[in-house]
Design a protein that fits this description.
With about 575 residues, the chain is an alpha+beta fold. Helix content is about 75%, strand content about 10%. It has a domain of about 220 residues: 2-Layer Sandwich (Heat Shock Protein 90). Strands 2-4-5-7-6 form a 5-stranded mixed sheet. Strands 1-3 form a two-stranded antiparallel ribbon. It is flat.
Length: about 575
């Protein structure tokens, strides 16, 4: 904030960058100082109008929409966002359009119209994904999680958090990370996992403190008071007082209503009728403003008017197009009488050109589909790498916490080599088989260190694959090896635990076989239900999607088969994974 104000003071020239920085100041003040935020909004609006800076006009309407949302004026807030969408489309600012869709969804969520919220938020995700605006995608998925939480759809809420978390980590912004940690804390509290809930609430508050983020501080206080079940009334009142103070200071009407309602209930339980009635009165005043039928009706009217206006514009464009076509038809008929012979010649030429264009179009479509597949593959790999690196960092943290410094250093050295391999591989779609195998071996060595060499690792590689220059998608089999270690071998108490990896070449296909003698899938599922009911690995899903896309690219029939291994007593004694991909 200080650096932005400093820039404004030292750059007297009023241009597009000047207006954009004024908007940034207004946006950052919207949850802290409403009056100052509104003053900066007015400057953005006036200067954008005077310079006819369409992008700035869109920014001004977004600022106005946020300020009206804070004061519970949802119909005018949506009206501002709809105007911003029109301005954004006029200057081809898709990112601003996505922001508007998300904020309209937030308005509908506050009014408890969750289907509308999901509808607009989904449109925002589509635009942000197309633009690669990962910060926006993270915010969108967090809003979908809020809808599900409000609807008591806890599994879906958890899934949306997991979907958005990789994008939140990419954004690496304290405001967003605070919201995600808060979401995980709520879900753990709902599941009566108090220690885990407190852990995530603390992480959320730590992130909020980094930038003195008042709205997220308010959210943490409210979550503790609402979701933690084993706290005294006095502690709950302290949390709610802190939240209420922030809401009133920032003129946050929804926050005032929610906090006052909870305070009224707590004081009622304590038989403090005066305080209970006082906060109930505050709640009713704020709630009537927030959720009145008039407010809901006006929001729907504003949306309907905007839709009708857009439809009318489309109809006018169609009428204009129709008139142009009629004029063209008259001209063509006149030319038909005058230049019959030339027209026949033109038709012949046109047919030749048409065939040529169709041929080029087919080639362009084929190239476009190939680019889509490559983009999807890059996206999946970008999601898998943070997932894998996150697990490795957890292992290093565990060694440090157990004060095993030597082991931690050894682990970190191997990990750095593995990261170098991953970074080198990330520049290309495919990597040499030998280099990928080196990365897999390093990963297994890291896991052996982590589990105190609890298991051995054996590889059987067809010499033909090593001698020839074959290429494979990087770290494709890593999630299956990780699954075997974490869910099969690490849970077993048996001796002589083994992990085996083989790779053979059969009819232009590389056949990987990953086999462990761990506890098997059924017993692993039972452990997961007991110990990690909220955890869901995305590694196997991403690998399967990568295989599907790789098959499309290579026009091959690669596949994955997973089967349980049983002993002579028909008891589970491990898992076998067979993965088949085209040799490139």
């Amino acid at each position: 904030m200080d650096s932005l104000k400093n820039w404004i003071n030292t750059h007297p020239k009023i241009d597009s960058q000047y207006i954009v920085n004024l908007h940034k100041i207004s946006y950052r003040l919207s949850e802290k100082d409403v009056q100052q935020s509104f003053e900066y909004y007015e400057k953005v609006s006036q200067l954008s109008d005077s310079l006819n800076f369409v992008y700035g006009k869109a920014l001004a309407q977004i600022n106005l929409g946020i300020l009206l949302f804070n004061s519970a004026n949802f119909d005018e807030s949506n009206s501002a966002y709809f105007k911003a969408i029109d301005e954004a489309e006029a200057c081809d600012a898709l990112r601003l359009k996505a922001i508007c869709f998300n904020n309209i969804g937030e308005n509908f969520r506050t009014l408890n119209d969750l289907d509308k919220c999901r509808e607009y938020t989904t449109q925002a995700i589509a635009i942000n994904s197309e633009l690669g605006a990962w910060r926006g995608v993270a915010i969108n998925y967090e809003l979908l999680h809020e809808c599900d939480l409000q609807d008591q759809l806890y599994t879906s809420a958890k899934n949306n958090l997991f979907m958005g978390m990789p994008f939140a980590l990419k954004a690496n912004e304290s405001y967003i990370l605070s919201q995600y940690y808060l979401g995980f804390g709520k879900l753990h509290a709902i599941n009566n996992q108090t220690d885990s809930a407190l852990f995530y609430f603390k992480k959320a508050m730590d992130q909020a403190m980094l930038q003195n983020d008042l709205r997220n501080k308010y959210n943490v206080y409210m979550a503790k008071a609402k979701y933690l079940k084993k706290i005294s009334s006095n502690i709950k009142i302290n949390f709610l007082d802190s939240a209420y103070s922030i809401a009133t200071r920032t003129s946050y009407m929804e926050g005032i209503a929610k906090t006052a309602e909870l305070l009224s209930s707590v004081y009622d339980e304590k038989q403090n009728k005066d305080s209970s009635w006082e906060f109930y009165h505050i709640y009713r005043l704020a709630s009537d403003s927030l959720f009145s039928k008039n407010n809901r009706r006006n929001v729907i009217i504003k949306e309907s008017n905007w839709m009708l206006n857009r439809k009318e514009i489309e109809n006018n464009h169609l009428k204009e197009l129709s008139q142009i076509q009629k004029k063209d038809l008259v001209i063509k008929n006149a030319l038909l009488w005058v230049t019959g012979f030339l027209l026949i010649l033109l038709i012949i030429i046109a047919l030749f050109i048409y065939k040529n264009i169709q041929s080029k179009k087919k080639r362009a479509e084929s190239s476009f589909k190939q680019k889509i597949a490559e983009t999807q593959m890059q996206s999946l790999r970008a999601q898998m790498n943070p997932h894998f690196i996150f697990n490795c960092l957890n292992s290093i943290e565990n060694f440090m916490m157990r004060n095993e410094k030597r082991t931690a250093i050894e682990y970190l050295n191997k990990f750095s080599v593995l990261i170098r391999i991953i970074l080198d591989s990330s520049r290309t779609e495919l990597v040499p088989f030998a280099k990928d195998l080196e990365g897999i071996r390093l990963y297994v060595e890291l896991e052996q260190l982590r589990f105190n060499n609890k298991f051995s690792f054996e590889t059987h590689i067809d010499p033909l694959i090593l001698n020839e220059e074959f290429y494979v998608p990087s770290l494709l089999i890593q999630p299956y090896i990780e699954n075997a270690i974490l869910h099969g071998l690490s849970q077993s108490e048996s001796d002589n635990l083994k992990l085996q990896l083989s790779a053979t070449l059969e009819n232009d296909y590389i056949i990987y076989v990953i086999e462990d003698n761990g506890i098997g899938r059924e017993q692993s599922k039972k452990y997961k239900i007991q110990n990690k009911p909220f955890h869901e690995s995305i590694g196997l899903q991403l690998s399967q999607e990568r295989i599907n896309i790789f098959n499309l690219q290579q026009k091959s029939k690669g596949e994955v088969k997973i089967e349980d291994i049983y002993n002579h007593l028909h008891e589970p004694c491990g898992t076998r994974v067979e993965l088949k991909i085209k040799a490139v």
